[in-house]
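Lab notes, practical 5.
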Amino acid sequence: MDTLMLPFSPRFIVLTICSVVTALLLGLGIVDHKVFDIVLVPLLIFGALTLLGIRDLMQKSHAVLRNYPISAHLRFLLEEIRPEMRQYFFESEKDGMPFSRDTRAVVYQRAKMALDKRPFGTQEDVYREGYEWIHHSVAPKVRAQEKFRIAIGGPDCKKPYSASVFNISAMSFGALSPNAVRALNAGAKKGGFAHDTGEGGVSSYHREMGGDIIWEIGSGYFGCRNRDGSFNPEEFARVATDDQIKMVELKVSQGAKPGHGGVLPAAKVSEEISKIRGVAMGEDCISPAYHRAFSTPLEMMTFIGEMRRLSGGKPAGFKLCIGHPWEFLAICKAMLQTGIYPDFIVVDG
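Output from the prediction step:
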């Protein structure tokens, strides 16, 4: 009895209805040829839905389609348009991560050189906990004319760099498109700040716009490696002495990869990326979880000193995401023991 009632259960009722309607329309068309032209379009629609339901019932790759033939496609459709539904009907001006609709609107307006000012109040909840503001003053200071810059480079640095307090953080070519790299470096050129390459190497797109560059190398030593993946000092010196590169940075760790390295799948290793990074095509591009050029804080300080020397005396520093405080204290102790100090430290989130 349960088996006989199965076609009328909520799971299969849509397929049952489509099948019955298709059979009725086909029967009407056969019995009365005059109405065939009238029922042709509905017949084709319900016939196609019936064939789709039979296909869903027979296939074995999607359990949802097999259990809910035809109707399950509505679920996939709703999943497909979910972001648009949320954006247009449910999301407020201040919702949305990582950037709210309000913030995105300002970016769009500025990109089109349109008016981006919104006078008369704010949509922010200024009374919520954590809201930040600037206190009013009856005697505000005159706006400073000097640029917000800081000199980077210790006594061992022959070519110190006057860096802006606002710079572009590390994002690699490969993760970013050529046009994205061009745009960021052009912005660095116009704004007078530095553009960090990320660990993916220095591409021709970083050089096109003439913006200042901070060259970051990671555990893969992309752009300065031997065939076996080890560090190549001669190749590093060749690239690092370029006048456009103002500082060199050693990536020890980062927040996005806690305790493990990274992989660029072989399918994404194009001929261009292969040349820039110095890796073989057709193979996964591996960023190991650890460095092969050093294994202790003392060796790390020696390596940073060597980076400074090979670059022609440019500021050399390192980037890390602090996990265990004692690890960073060990690095500080190594600075004291070796007398080698980085010119800057980047703390990643």
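Observations recorded by the TA: The longest strand covers residues 245-251. The longest helix spans residues 36-58.
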